[in-house]
Amino acid sequence: MGQPGLNRRQLLAAAGGLTVAGSFGFAALGTGADALAAGSQTRVRYWNLFSGGDGANMIAMLDAFRQDNPGIDVKDSTLQWGNPFYTKLAMAAAGNRAPDLGVMHLGRVTGFSPGRLLDPWDVELLGKYGVREEDFNPQLWKRAVLDGKLYALPLDIHVQLCFYRRDVLKKAGLLGADGRMVPVTSADEWFDVLKEAKKATQKGLQTIGLWLNDQNFQWWFFVAFYTQLGGTWFDDANTEVTFDTDKATQVLEFLRRHITDGYANPGFGGAAGAEQFINGSPFVWEGNWSVPVFDGAKLDYGATPLPPVFGKQATHAESHSFVLPHQSDRGGATNEAAHRLAAYVVRHARQWAAGGHIPAYTPTLSTAAYKELQPQSEYVSAMDHQATEPKVWFAGSTGILAQGVGPIVAASTMGSVKPETAARRMKGALTQLLAMKNPMDGRTAAEGGAAA
Questions:
Q1: Helix and strand tally (H, E) in the chain?
Q2: pLDDT for 22-38, tens place per residue?
Q3: What kind and span of H or E run contains 424?
Q4: How far apart are CA 165 and CA 146, in angstroms?
Q5: For a pLDDT cut of 70, what percent of the chain falls above it?
Q6: C-alpha distances in Å from residue 150, one per residue of 54, 199, 360
Q7: Is 158 in a helix, a strand, or coil?
Q8: Strand pairing partners for 323?
Q9: For residue 225, what is the enclosing H or E element?
Q10: pLDDT (tens digit, 9 = 90+) per residue, 187-224?
């Protein structure tokens, strides 16, 4: 852990821009010098990026922990989502002002210089508080391990879903006896479903919302369907691009067809897809975080993983995970309390599931309480067929990979670039990224040591 600190300019550039960090001050988040809460012996400073419904659910879970563990004072701070959060976390870890516990998207962990900006978890200590490797999906746990050490403790997976209106699909004859959407196993079947659904759709509404001009959503959809085709990104050593432009073209043509066949309307933009779904549109592809929105609208709806149109189940997935930002003196009662807090939240994630996320702690998924959740229990199978970004430093939620390749996918979907041309551009972008050095530590993906 005693490696030299990183260059401030490298940190800022890597996390999202020089202008971002200057607007933040560490003092507002506390340094641990203020008084402990009454009756507490230990404080855990915890930074997260949860707002809205997720924020409310996290607060409820923290309050439950405080009630059950009165000797631990949890000082939680919610920071701005996205690159501003990662900028602040990186600078705090490099400057030895890091919180005791933090949250990161799992895809970002590889690029966060584990061992320099992140400390590994003590798996024996986690086991003491009831969290063990066997309690997690093997693929998810493996993604959290780098250089043989656990650097992230998964809280959930959040996935892209196919939301559907039961009232419209029933009218179209597209509901099974179980009240769920008829199964789809090919692209032709999917477009047959859209054709029938369109006939039952109220005039003025599109058949499906796809966030057509959003680089992140289009990238996430691409990752899902490219994975369904068995597409790969790089070789095991991360020295060669193995991206298959033929398979990529298939995916891009599939996404584009939703517009050319008249099922998705570019004029409705992004968020309008969810609005139209509320107003009666039969389908929308959205993240599972939309569950509270659609519940609040009191819709009769269901949600399933993205359809396996290329024959293999795979839907895009990311994960919120707990991390230990680097502290030169990490250890003792505070470090143990951080392990205890993270393990508690992971094990009591029924509240978290209300926000639509799939709890990473698999014993939760088999409980009667979880099975009663709708539509969460309908798409829980996504845990077993996660389509994730490659395990390289430039990947992860809204990271450099999405920023570089996502706009190409969106341009193809919208029709400004031909799919085959877009596929070649994507491979070119991947080639450039593979040769780049991570500003956090000056190493390429091949030098990053991301072996599980």
A1: 18, 15
A2: 333 333 344 444 566 65
A3: helix 419-435
A4: 42
A5: 90
A6: 25, 51, 15
A7: strand
A8: 102
A9: helix 215-228
A10: 999 999 999 999 999 999 999 999 999 999 999 999 99
Residue environment code for 141-157, b if the CB has 16+ CB neighbours within 10 A, otherwise e? bebbbbeeebbbbbbbb
Q: Residue 190 contacts by C-beta under 8 Å, 6 or more apart in sequence?
A: 184, 307, 309
Q: What is the β-pairing status of strands 315-318 and 156-165?
A: antiparallel
Distance CA 37, CA 129 (A): 23
Positive/negative CA dihedral, 241, 247, 248, 249? positive
CB of 269 closer than 8 Å to CB of 147: no
Burial of 351 (0-12, 13-18, 19+ CB in 10 A): middle
pTM of the predicted structure, to 2 decimals: 0.90
pLDDT of residue 96: 87
- Two structure tokens written together for 131: 């969290």
Query: How far is the C-alpha of 42 from the C-alpha of 211, rounded, in Å?
Result: 46
Which two tokens mark 11? 């940190």
Question: pLDDT, tens digit, for every residue of 362-410?
Answer: 999 999 999 999 999 999 999 999 999 999 999 998 889 999 999 999 9
Burial 357-390 (b: 16+ CB within 10 A, else e): bbbbbeebbeeeebeebebbebbbebbebbbbbb
Which residues face 163 on adjacent strands? Answer: 284, 303
In a 3-state reduction of DSSP, which class is residue 56? helix
Identify the weakest region by mean pLDDT among 4-8, 144-148, 164-168: 4-8
Closest to 62 measured CA to CA, from 141, 155, 124: 155
Q: Are the beta carbons of 85 and 54 closer than 8 angstroms?
A: no
- Lowest average pLDDT, out of 2-6, 30-34, 150-154, 417-421, goes to 2-6
What confidence score (pLDDT) does residue 37 get? 63
Count Cα neighbours of 173 within 13 Å in the Cβ-side half-sphere: 4
| Beta-strand relationship, 149-150 and 153-154 | unpaired
As a whole number of angstroms, the distance between CA 413 and CA 61 comes to 40
DSSP letters, 73-105, are EEEEEE--TTHHHHHHHHHHHHTT---SEEEEE
